[in-house]
Amino acid sequence: MTVKSVSPKKVAQEVFQNEPIYVLDVRSKEEAEDWKIEGDHVQLINIPFKELNGSDLKQLPEDRTLYTVCAKGNTSQRAAAYLQDNGFDNVYSVEGGMAAWSEQLETVKIGDVKGGAIYQFVRLGKGCLSYLVESDGEAAVVDASRMTENYEQFAREKSLNIKYVIDSHLHADHISGGKKLTDASGAAYYLPPDDAEEVVFSYEPVTDGLKLEVGSAVIEAVYSPGHTIGSTTFVVDDKYLLTGDILFVKSIGRPDLAGKAADWANDLYETLYSRYKKLADDLLVLPAHYAEISELNEEGSVSEKLSVLYKENEGLQIKDEAKFIKRVTEGLKDQPNAYEDIRQTNMGKIHPPADEEKEMETGPNNCAV
Q: CA-to-CA distance for 241 and 276, rounded, in angstroms?
């Protein structure tokens, strides 16, 4: 009997459209708890493959489509075959498993800018968010993922010339597509110099107050250290605040991914409780990550007004600096998978093959406190 399969792209679109989905995760319980397919209408059932034979299959829906998933797509095929042999006719194996799931990007329009619009690229399987600002036929991409074909295709479809590629900081949780997209598009690549002391390729420095014109729209850099020493926020057309990994919708950035938590925690406090306080409170915060599927708005975007976050975000309620520093330096989650190798890759010091890059990015992003 032939095992049916489903593309991770189709699964991502169904999650994004809030369609009911049933997923059987056949990895270990620890793996499934740490990192899984999530969505408001995703029903996840975890039965490790070695336990499938002999398990009570009545917990699985016989009258609904069922997706099986594993790490890379092989074990889930065997699980789908087993279920087919046991009377489940509408079961599909997710092609490429969780490794492929982590590469899916869905695009949502956030709003208008002068002469164009700003779009958010939502990486459902990794919780990463990147952005494209387009105006009058020009575009800038901020915090690009390594799947740069998504931005290139988007630009082709809208007849855009990618003028700038920008990273808000040197990423440690995922491989940046900045250099790759720059090489493909001929755009200028901007990176905060304080994060780039060991970078081995050429780039343009992002400095405080720098203004980049994208058609009629303007992107202004605001130095905002704390997650890294070079972390920089971008104000787009005085309406949108691209916060990188400094501020999220339900949390704040962690200061320890370069081993300097004690030093950078003070910077993080200064950014969140002083620098950001000087910005307009009606700016729409657009972070580079989200931690939970509940952070997605109804249309699939991740955003919130800065004024709302100052009322509701837990990380913005700790006014005492000593208590804040204690909070952000103690009891942190595990650091992202292969984060040091990812940093070395983003510096241009090592060049892993594609399969190794995919493996380096497995697991949740863990960039928040």
A: 10
Return the pLDDT at 35: 93
Half-sphere exposure of 95 (CA within 13 A, CB side): 11
Select which of 66, 70, 132, 166 is catalytic. 70
Instruction: Specify the 3-state DSSP secondary structure of 199.
Output: coil
Burial class of residue 107 in the structure, from the number of CB atoms within 10 Å of its CB (0-12 exposed, 13-18 middle, 19+ buried): middle
CB 251 within 8 A of CB 314: yes
**Structural contact between residues 201 and 214, judged by C-beta atoms closer than 8 angstroms:** no
- pLDDT by residue (tens digit) across 27-82? 999 999 999 999 989 999 999 999 999 899 999 998 899 999 999 999 999 999 99
How do residues 106-146 score in pLDDT, each as one tens digit?
Answer: 999 999 999 999 999 999 999 999 999 999 999 999 999 99
| Cα–Cα distance, 163 to 157 (Å, whole number) | 16
* β-pair type (284-287, 240-244): parallel
For residues 357 and 102, give the distance between their C-alpha atoms in angstroms, rounded to a whole number: 12
Burial label for 174, CB within 10 Å (0-12, 13-18, 19+), is: buried
Give the pLDDT band of residue 293 (cuts 50, 70, 90): confident
pTM: 0.94
**70 flagged as catalytic:** yes
What percentage of the chain carries pLDDT values higher than 90?
A: 83
CATH superfamily placement of domain 5-100: Rhodanese-like domain (3.40.250.10)
Q: What is the CATH number of domain 104-354?
A: 3.60.15.10
Instruction: Check: CB of residue 72 under 8 Å from CB of residue 99.
Output: yes
Beta partners for residue 304, in sequence order: 285
On average, the pLDDT of the chain sits at 94
Determine the Cα–Cα distance for residues 312 and 20; give it in Å rounded to an integer: 30
Chain region(s) in the chain for CATH 3.60.15.10: 104-354
**For residue 210, what are its two tokens?**
């720098």
In the chain, which segments carry CATH 3.40.250.10? Answer: 5-100
Cβ neighbours for 63, distance < 8 A, ≥ 6 positions apart: none
